[in-house]
């Protein structure tokens, strides 16, 4: 149910004439939901600005949040959802900050006037749409933050370290899926370019299990490194992993394999005559 022009104008007047009482009641309700995680001063500033945004939208004749007169209000709601998502607030806590306006307005309306209550239903729908708009923006921002954090964790979990002059190593820990394998390959190849190293050790000591998919990812990384002119040695071949590789019929061909990272490093140093 959309607000008509007359109802929008009437509620714009309500928001203007009762602004102090509305801001106080609105702030109280939001403060209860956030449980002291934002200061009273900051909450009052936010609710004051949002009241102005709702007033401007309604005074401009907006019957729905998606209409042109509500453009500034949408910008305010988007800013609110973005800041709350980055501060770690939940989607519910963010939405309640908008929904609480309904309680504040109901507190200043004359409940004995049937016309007021009928108009309030339409006004409630307007606020609900505003809260849903805020929720959608929150979800988009939150998903973006999660994706960025996942990418950062992926990069941190696949370091490429220089062990010796001309020798770099990739210590793998955890499961090696397609996305992580791509990151491993990119970081290894870039490090080979940056350091000019002719040898790379791929250490799988921290990989809990090696199946056909994991082996294929490792082999692709070795082939890519060879195309860059670097020889790869795979270390961390524990007895359980060796048995699994044999049982699966996985062939590493002429790729050197060692039981430990230390063995792999000694192997490389012997090859370089050091």
Taking the alpha carbons of the first and last residues, their distance comes to: 81 Å
**What is the arithmetic mean of pLDDT?**
86
Query: How many E-type strands?
Result: 5
Q: Which term fits the overall shape? A: rod-shaped
The spatial strand order of the largest sheet comes to 1-2-3-4-5
What oligomeric assembly is this protein in?
single chain
Strand residues, percent: 5-15%
Cα-atom radius of gyration: 31 Å
Identify low-pLDDT runs.
Answer: none
**Fraction of residues in H or I helices:** 55-70%
Largest sheet entry:
5 strands, mixed
How many helix segments?
10
Q: Note the run of SSEs as H and E.
A: HHHHHHEEHEHEHEH
Structural class: alpha/beta
Helix and strand arrangement:
Elements: H1 5-17, H2 19-34, H3 40-59, H4 71-87, H5 91-108, H6 114-156, E1 161-164, E2 167-173, H7 178-195, E3 199-206, H8 212-227, E4 231-235, H9 239-248, E5 256-258, H10 261-271
Parallel strand pairs: 2-3, 3-4, 4-5
Antiparallel strand pairs: 1-2
Features:
274 residues, alpha/beta, rod-shaped, 10% strand
Description:
The protein is of the alpha/beta class and about 270 residues long. It is about 65% helix and about 10% strand. The protein has 10 helices and 5 strands. It has helices spanning about 5-15, 20-35, 40-60, 70-85, 90-110, 115-155, 180-195, 210-225, 240-250, 260-270; strands at about 160-165, 165-175, 200-205, 230-235, 255-260. A 5-stranded mixed β-sheet has the order 1-2-3-4-5, with helices on both faces. α9 (about 240-250) links the parallel β4 and β5 (about 255-260). The relative contact order is 0.09.
